[in-house]
Amino acid sequence: MTARPKIVDAGLRAKILSEALPYIRAFNGKTIVIKYGGSAQVASDLKEGFAQDIVLLKYVGIRPVIVHGGGEQVSDMMEKLGKDPKFVDGLRVTDPETMEVVEMVLGGRLNKEIVARINKHGGSAVGLTGKDGRLMQAVKKKPKRLVDVEGREKLVDLGLVGDIEKIDSRILEILLANDFIPVVAPVGVTADGVSLNVNADTAAGSIAAALRAARLIYLTDVPGLLKDEKDDDSLISTVRLSEVDDLREAGVISGGMIPKIESVTQAIYTGVEKAHFIDGRVPRSLLLELFTDEGIGTEIIQS
């Protein structure tokens, strides 16, 4: 006798819930820092699903902290204002006018949109930038040294782009202790109060390290680390930090994955237990990675 579809579905849901239980128990009371970007931050259905997942994490006793990007949205706004976005080695050249756009889009519209969506689903999110409570203290990045096709070197000033000097996590700890969900835009501040554009991947890693987070999770537009970037089935499930140099030499870690790996390495050596690269294009990817035995992405561990 064949089981009725509704009974099969109910049994599958029960299995998923029972599989999640030990993970929920293990993460209860733990801090998880999530770098939110890519398609998950653009597609309407994924944005709603992400907000719901964050609220669920909070309801089962996890303390989520969100650090979001928004480079595509910043570029769109610049073009609307008649300004051409410029990049050097993947970093946005940020003159004072561009910095105004960065603050307006990241610290304003996008940040508050994420906060509102989480709150709509029953969370208590609070939006802030690295300037609030001097959370993200930064220094201006040194000029980039580039070599042209004729072998000539030149220095390129990136403008108001920052390197993180210190994370003062007190404001985050106060929010977490009072059951709020911090949502952080990656705008740093100098000792003189000047705003700086900070790489969101780096910001997420530095915040995770400062909070001694149990997990650091990056939502990306790829399944994770792939041995062959054209073959999703070549996903590497687990990477040890001791393997990172070899993977970089092999070209497995390249492009935009490099700053992510660098921030992950610093975070793990500073006390973060594990880091994960997961495909934010997959609905509920956050829950699948955290609460199932197989997971869906690549986990980075120390040894």
Summarize the structure.
With 303 residues, this protein is an alpha/beta fold.
Number of helices: 9
CATH class placement: Alpha Beta
User: Structural class of the helices, strands and pairings?
Assistant: alpha/beta
Please tell me the overall pLDDT: 90
Can you identify the CATH superfamily?
Acetylglutamate kinase-like
Strand arrangement, largest sheet? 5-10-2-1-13-15-16-14
CATH topology, which one?
Carbamate kinase
Describe the structure.
The chain is an alpha/beta fold and 303 residues long. It has a single domain (29-131, 169-187, 196-301), classed as Carbamate kinase (3-Layer(aba) Sandwich), CATH 3.40.1160. It is built from 9 helices and 16 strands. The protein has helices spanning 5-27, 44-59, 71-80, 96-120, 170-177, 200-211, 244-249, 257-270, 285-291; strands at residues 31-36, 63-68, 87-88, 91-92, 125-129, 136-140, 144-147, 153-156, 162-167, 181-185, 187-189, 195-197, 215-220, 238-240, 274-279, 298-301. Strands 5-10-2-1-13-15-16-14 form an 8-stranded mixed beta sheet, with helices on both faces. A two-stranded antiparallel ribbon has the order 3-4. Helix 2 (44-59) packs across helix 4 (96-120), helix 3 crosses helix 4 (96-120) and helix 6 packs parallel to helix 8 (257-270). The longest helix is centred in the middle third of the chain and has 25 residues, at 96-120. It is globular. The chain starts with a helix and ends with a strand. The relative contact order is 0.15.
